[in-house]
Design goal:
The protein is built from 6 helices and 3 strands; from the N terminus they run αααβααββα. Helix 2 runs antiparallel to helix 6.
Length: 132
């Protein structure tokens, strides 16, 4: 991609417009349909943080998660246990220090997240362009 084209794309997607809003709306709807969040921002944030650390090839431990959350530790723990119980997250004990627990996504979470991205792609415009 040439530099002028890259700048044009960046400026288009960095501004508020109907396509970006439609994308965000589709993304949220897909997330609600494919993830067990039921309008819970706590569950949504836990899943997103788990995926972020996983994709950055970093370990997410419980202490880090609690520190990064903007809600209570009890609400985070409740959602975390529910997501673990339902097979969306793994909670693994560190081999070196049994007090440390790591949170990892399951294949189920990764597959559903990929489906969300595919279904809400910004290239899927709400209405087709009329080039005539």
């Amino acid at each position: 991609m040439t530099e002028p084209l890259r700048y044009l794309c960046k400026s288009f997607f960095s501004q508020l417009n109907i396509y970006n809003i439609n994308y965000l709306d589709r993304f949220l709807n897909e997330s609600i349909n494919k993830l067990p969040i039921k309008h819970s921002m706590v569950a949504y944030i836990v899943l997103i943080k788990c995926l972020k650390y996983h994709l950055n090839q970093e370990q997410l431990n419980l202490k880090t998660l609690y520190l990064e959350m903007s809600c209570s530790e009890i609400a985070t723990r409740e959602q975390l246990l529910k997501l673990h119980r339902d097979g969306w997250l793994l909670i693994e004990t560190c081999a070196d220090d049994k007090r440390v627990k790591y949170i990892k996504p399951t294949a189920k979470l990764i597959e559903n997240s990929n489906q969300i991205i595919r279904n809400s792609s910004p290239l899927n415009f709400a209405k087709p362009f009329n080039f005539s």
